[in-house]
Amino acid sequence: MTAARTRIKICGLTREQDLDAAVAAGADAVGFVLWEKSPRHVPIARAAELASRLPPFVTPVLLFVNESPQQVLACCERVPGALVQFHGDETPAQCQEATGDGRHAFLRAARIPLDGSPFDLVRFASEHARAQAILLDAHVEGYGGAGKAFDWSRLPANVNAHLVLSGGLTPANVADGIVQVRPRCRTLAVDVSSGVEAAKGIKDPEKINRFVAAVRAADALLAKSTHVQLSAT
Ligand SMILES: O=C(O)c1ccccc1N[C@@H]1O[C@H](COP(=O)(O)O)[C@@H](O)[C@H]1O
Q1: ipTM beyond 0.90?
Q2: Closest Cα to residue 110, out of 170, 36, 185, 172?
Q3: Pocket flag, ligand 1, residue 14 (CB < 6 Å)
Q4: Domain residues of the chain, as ranges?
Q5: How far does CA 114 lie from the centroid of its chain?
Q6: For residue 86, which of 117, 39, 127, 27 has the smallest C-alpha distance?
Q7: Which one-letter DSSP state was computed for residue 35?
Q8: Is 11 one of the catalytic residues?
């Protein structure tokens, strides 16, 4: 399946005006970083307050790094309809326990080496088969949100999973990322934090708009090429 609309997640929100800008631009999901060591950290009460502004069909995502299952579950109770993002070293069993045995859907981040050393994504996706999607980020110190892109061309040709491409995406490179990664997976979403910021935790509405426009342009390009391929058969 290559012609579906690319879903968009804007992550690391800390302010009402940034959340509103993401929604107005057409984001499908917005992320709140609950890991205390992040410069974008928000306490759960603040995440819940921001999430309460969301209109229907925009999903709040709660990002954790190696958090206890009890705490993850308690946070999910505070944000109805939240999707969980595990961005640390969580095992499949820990993800399962922390989401109440499947009560809450979750994304599992795969951290792809930047130095070209091998990473078995097909195996990782199969080990984390209960994840709604596998989120791809660059392997960086501090777990994520570093604005670093890995080499997309090294991904396997066929990953039987829904993927979320992240790590160093910007309005300038996201279309290339979509064109390279979409054909390799079941469906593709993109996730951005640093690339639409004015400063850490502070988003730039103009960058958000340009990011969303670039995603839509890539979608249009792919739809056109799929149409050309279908007409030729
Ligand atoms: O945003 C953070 O500070 C963060 C901290 C720890 C783990 C993940 C974090 N952010 C996520 O990292 C990816 C890539 O972000 P970027 O666009 O390269 O800045 C994305 O999923 C963020 O949600």
Answers
A1: yes
A2: 185
A3: no
A4: 7-232
A5: 18
A6: 127
A7: -
A8: yes
Residue 149 structure tokens = 């892109």
Which atom of ligand 1 is closest in space to residue 135's alpha carbon?
A: 21
Compute CA 15 distance to the chain's CA centroid, rounded to the nearest angstrom. Answer: 19
In the reported structure, the alpha carbon of residue 111 is separated from the centroid of ligand 1 by a whole-number distance in angstroms of 11
Mean pLDDT across the chain: 95
Ligand 1 mutation target, pool 137, 139, 197, 211, most atoms within 8 A of CB: 137
Q: 211 CB less than 6 Å from ligand 1?
A: no
pLDDT tens-place string over residues 90-147: 999 999 999 999 899 999 999 999 998 999 999 999 999 999 999 999 999 989 989 9
Cα 120 from Cα 104, distance rounded (Å) = 26
50: helix, strand or coil: helix
Is the domain defined by 7-232 classed in CATH 3.20.20.70? Answer: yes
Amino acid of residue 115: D
How far apart (Å, rounded) are the C-alpha atoms in residues 165 and 47? 23
| Residue of 206, 166, 209 whose CA lies nearest to 25 | 209
Cα 207 to its chain centre, rounded Å, is 17
Active site residue 204: no
Structure tokens at 63: 């990002």
Q: How far is the CA of 11 from the centre of ligand 1 (A)?
A: 7
